[in-house]
Every structure is written in structure tokens, then in C-alpha cells.
Amino acid sequence: MKKIMNSPDTLVAEALEGLVISFPQYLKQVPGTHVLTRATPKPAGRVGLVSGGGSGHEPAHAGYVGYGMLDAAVAGEVFTSPTPDQVLEGIRVADHGAGVLLVVKNYTGDVMNFDIARELAEAEGIKVATVVVNDDVAVENSSFTTGRRGIAGTIFVHKIAGALAEQGASLEEVEAVANRVIAHVRSMGFALEPCTVPQAGQPTFTLADDEIEMGIGIHGEPGIERQKLRSAHELAQSLLEKIAMDLPLKAGDHLACMVNGMGATPLLELAALAREVSLWSKSHDMPLDVVWTGEFMTSLEMAGASLTLLPLDDTLRTLLAAPCDTPQLRQGVHHD
Amino acid sequence: MKKIMNSPDTLVAEALEGLVISFPQYLKQVPGTHVLTRATPKPAGRVGLVSGGGSGHEPAHAGYVGYGMLDAAVAGEVFTSPTPDQVLEGIRVADHGAGVLLVVKNYTGDVMNFDIARELAEAEGIKVATVVVNDDVAVENSSFTTGRRGIAGTIFVHKIAGALAEQGASLEEVEAVANRVIAHVRSMGFALEPCTVPQAGQPTFTLADDEIEMGIGIHGEPGIERQKLRSAHELAQSLLEKIAMDLPLKAGDHLACMVNGMGATPLLELAALAREVSLWSKSHDMPLDVVWTGEFMTSLEMAGASLTLLPLDDTLRTLLAAPCDTPQLRQGVHHD
To answer: What is the least distance, in Å, from the CA of A48 to any CA of chain B?
Structure first.
């Protein structure tokens, strides 16, 4: 195992410090915790948004803390849910008097720990709602989940719910729009190479020189099928057809797409994949209104990518396009 | 070789299309070329900035096309200089009547082809100046260069010269500030794993399970020394001491630092490395005013990182902090 670190035991804590050092205009650390929150908090009376989960998915979730997205990100150890007391710290710092929405990816440990934290926060008088993202169409259950896994589609939930919260909507309204995104967002990924969890020291699976793993999650867990490497065109087709059938999509639907690198895939290849999504959407008469291409929800240094589609109505399109200002996503810039 | 592509022969052209599809608010392609230029051109009378080089370093250079940075990026094939006619297309589209500055990384092919393009543009009556970035302290000459190589420090040149050009400075002034950055910016990198050029199909070098290569460039070329893997702390010390002695730096110097991932290194590890830079700068009484952490100048899917230091005076600090709005770098956001 080769990693730039001092020790597997200190890597997450040191990286959180490093994120604050790198993005001081956005992030500060709640002292004594693994919670990163906004350097400039939201005004009173706005709904707060908290997300988090295991580390190893950077820029998720600290990269989305800032104006128009999250108020706090809670980091567990690599691929391990944060504990309820850490999530509780995140809820406390994100509460500005109008309640807090928890955006949780569907993994058993995360769902349980965020639920316990919610109960603890409610006992303190904080109003809390939870939404659970389950966008991965690859598997119905996995070694880490009951039901579908939450993967890159989570970032569209952060963006859209965060935009509505910034506008002063109520907790019920922000929860409702998050659930509308969750009802419609779908993703699927594949790996060219596995990743190695620092604490384990060994790759999570092995692939032959001409093999890929379809339907992988974001924790190095197995996919649904091992296949021969195929062209970018065939890979995109395969993922998009599976997603489109699941929704289902129809001609005329307007789409947002995320082309997400799993950690070790060059932007050169992700951009070539984005082109395939564009060709596919044109051939299916589904206008592609928004394309996000880059690393949004990674799995350490796994090589591969996931595609996420979200059909847009006017409300979702407007919220997706609303200004945001975070380490990873910045839009609606007004320059001098 | 595992890559998300249709063919090595079409990868770059398809990726350029994919970048425009992903960032239409920033980028458009000059028809029939490998030149990406601003979607909204600079006002007349401003100096234009052009950079470029071989592909495989994404987000360099198209990721820096936009307000406050470049006017055009010219892409060659992977790790291969763009031809003079392509660079000429970039100069033409970047000329808004006040001349064009070419920012060239010091590689023999790039320097030659950008020089020929400059002569062709001058024959058309366009005023052109060239600066050559040579920030890599690892080697004095290499298989690709006479003199030091240009690596990640190039992005500080884009940022600072681009900010001054946006303010309406003359070509001579923009050239002078670029040369001031070049005189002071220093970088050095290391690899944990090599990369594979699509056209070659084989890794550019091989490393044992416990080995790293110090002083690598950005084209998979050999470094200066093969070493045993060390801690993040020791790696940062080693690079920073070499850079600091080269400049030389002294206590009280204010610094900008870039912690640059080579392609396959997780942000988790880069953030941990950023923390080491911060500790080092504190222990040497050199305030770290700016830290950029992420992937700025990659080498395909190479694992590893480079560190770049730039001592700041008031002028450079102000220009580095000036607003910019590009696919990769956005700052000075005024949100609603």
C-alpha cells in the first residue's frame, strides 16, 4: 500500500485540518470534533443542512459546505459511519433556529447513527428531519445496505435542498424538495481498478488486466458483474440504458447529468465520457440542460466513473442553477 | 492498459468536445482546431493570454480559460506539443487588439512550436510576447528539456498575469509580472505510481511496492532518485527544503503554496500533505497566505503530488487574490 500519510490512524484527522488550511474562506472545524462547518454561518432563521459519512469520498462532504449547500459535514473514519455524538455536534452547529435537514446516504451504519443523533438533537429541542439517498440502480441490497445504496446523486440533493434552504424555505419545504430529488435521481458506476483502505492495506478486490467491475459502490464493495473492458461509448450506453429504464425516462425529458470520477480517473477520460452522455441524450431526444464533470463523490484512488441522471422540472432546474459558493462547487459568480 | 476511451487516436479530440459540453458557460471550441477559448471574450483593448501544451495534464490548460486567467488553451496530443498552426489559431482568437502573451512550459517541443507560432502571428501584425516557465527544481536538464522543466507553478503564472491583463495593463506590463512570478516560483514532485500514455499502452516506469520516484516531471519522465516510501511529514520536508534552499527563502517571507495531485492521489491525502506544508511554514516563520490544494497540473493517472512555493509581495498577493472565473478556479464570488 502506497499512500501519502503519516499513519492510517491519523490520516482523517490530519486531512480535516488540511482541508481547513486549504479552504479557510469556507471551512472551520468545530473544536475537538470531526465536523467541518461554514466559516461564515447562515443567517438566523434559515434551515441548516448536515451531511456526512465515512471519509474517503472527498470532496464529499466537506467540499460542499458553504453558501447554497451544506452547513456542516461530519466525517467518520475511512468508509466508516461517523458516530452519533459527532453527528449531534454537526446538527448543533447547523441549527440556526429553523431546524436541520440531515442528508444521509443509504448505508446501514449511517442511517442508524444519524437516526440516533436526530433523537439526541430532538431531546435538546432542535427540530430535525432526515432524507435518505438511494440513487444506485446497480443493486437492490448490498453488503452495506438494506435497499439501494446512496452514491453520487447525493450531491444533487445537497445542491437543490441547499438552494431552497438559502432562500428561507421551511424545514418541511426543504425536506420535500430533497425527497423529490431522491425520487428521481439515479446513478450507476464501474471500476477499472480497486482502492485500498488505509487501515486494511490490501485492495478491496482484484481485476484482471482486461476486466472491469460493473455496478460498484463507493466503498470498494463488489459490483454486479465482471466484464471485459469496453469502449467509452459502450460503457456510457450500458449505464444510461439501465438508469433510463429504471426511472423510466421518455423523449422530451430534460436532464441534469453528473459524470463522476471515482478518484484515479483523469479528467481527460471523464470529459470523453461526458461527450458520450451528450450523444446519447441527443439520440434519445432528451435535452441535457446541465452537465457536471469531475470528481464529486470518490472512492479513494479507485479508477472508474459513475453516471448520474436527474430529470428536471422548472423548480429543480432553477434550484440547481442557483448560486453556490463552496470549496468544490461555485456558481453564480458576479465578477467586477 | 485500462482507460475510459474509444480509441487512443480520438481521445483528445473527444475530450475537448466533452470539456465544452461540461463547461459551456466558460468554453467554446475554435471550429476545426484543438483550441478552447472563452465563451464570452474579453473586451477590446485588453491583452490576451494563451497557454497550452500536450494533453494529459487536465485541468491544465483549458480549465483555466475564463475571466481573470487565460483567453485560449491549445491542446496537443497526450504529452505532445501542439503544432505551430494550432498555437497560431489560439493567438488569433486571443488577440483583442493589445497583443498576446504566450505562457509556455519549458519543454523543447513547446518552446519551439510556440516560437514559430509567434513569428507567424507577428507576420500577421499581432503583437506577441512569450514567457517560459521553469519552476521544477528537481533537474537542471531532462530528456524533454534544456534547463529546468515547467510544471505546476505555471498555474500561478496564469493567475497573476491573467489578473493584470484583466485590469487593462499593457503587454509589456503583463509580460513583466509573469516573469517576476517565474523568477520566484519553485516546484518539486514525486510519484507513488507511474502513468500510461494511451498511444504507448505501457507504464512509463515501474516501481516496487515500497518505492517512490522523487523529482518526477509531468510526462512520466524519470525523476532524480528512487527512494523508499516515507511519511507525509518526511516527504513534505524533503521537497520544501529543496525548494527553500533553491530560492532561497528566509524567515518572514510570505508564501503561496500549491499542493498538486498528479492524477490518482485522493484529496484526503493531498489535504494531509497541505497540513504538513502549514506545519513546516510555521516552524520556519514563513506565513502561508495562500494554499491551493487539489489537482491543478496532472500527469494522467500518475499517483503522487508536487509542491509549489511562491514568495509573495503586495503586488503578487493582490493579483493572486483577484477575482477569476474559470472551470477549475473561481474566486471573488459575490453571491446574492
So the answer is: 18
Residue A7 lies in a domain: no
- Give φ, ψ of B210 to 5 degrees: -120, 15
Complex ipTM: 0.97
Do A71 and A206 fall within a single domain? no
Cβ of B231 within 8 Å of Cβ of A6? The answer is: yes
Looking at the predicted structure, is the pLDDT value of residue B336 above 50? no
Task: Decide if B36 is inside a domain.
Answer: yes
B219 is catalytic: yes
pLDDT tens for A158-205 read 999 999 999 999 999 999 999 999 999 999 999 999 999 999 999 989
Minimal CA–CA distance to B267: which of A61, A105, A140, A138? A61
Q: What does the block give as the cell for A153?
A: 446523486
What confidence score (pLDDT) does residue B237 get? Answer: 98
pLDDT tens, B142-171? 777 788 999 999 999 999 999 999 999 999
Instruction: Return the amino acid letter for B271.
Output: A
- Clarify whether residues B206 and B280 are in a common domain: yes
- Comparing alpha-carbon positions, the chain A residue that sits nearest to B228 is A2
Final residue belonging to a domain, choices B156, B183, B210: B183
**For B256-266, how does the pLDDT look when each residue is reduced to its tens digit (9 = 90+)?**
999 999 999 99
Q: Do A133 and A261 lie in a common domain?
A: no
Using an 8 Å CB-CB cutoff, list chain A residues near B294.
22
CB A179 within 8 A of CB A103: no
Catalytically annotated residue among B34, B61, B184, B219? B219
For the entire predicted model, the pTM comes to 0.97
CATH number at residue B139: 3.40.50.10440
Q: Is B288 on the interface with A (CB under 8 A)?
A: yes
CA A171 – CA A97 distance, rounded (Å) = 10
In CATH, what number is assigned to the domain containing residue A206? 3.30.1180.20
Give the nearest partner residue to A4 out of B273, B278, B323, using CB atoms. B273
Count of domains forming chain B: 2
CA dist., res. A183 & res. A246, Å (int): 11
Domain final residue, candidates B183, B199, B220: B183
Residue of chain B nearest A235, judged by CA positions: B4
Q: Tell whether B330 is covered by a domain.
A: no
Contact with chain B for residue A39, Cβ under 8 A: no
Measure A312 CA to nearest chain B CA, in Å: 17
Q: Cell numbers at residue A331, please?
A: 456558481
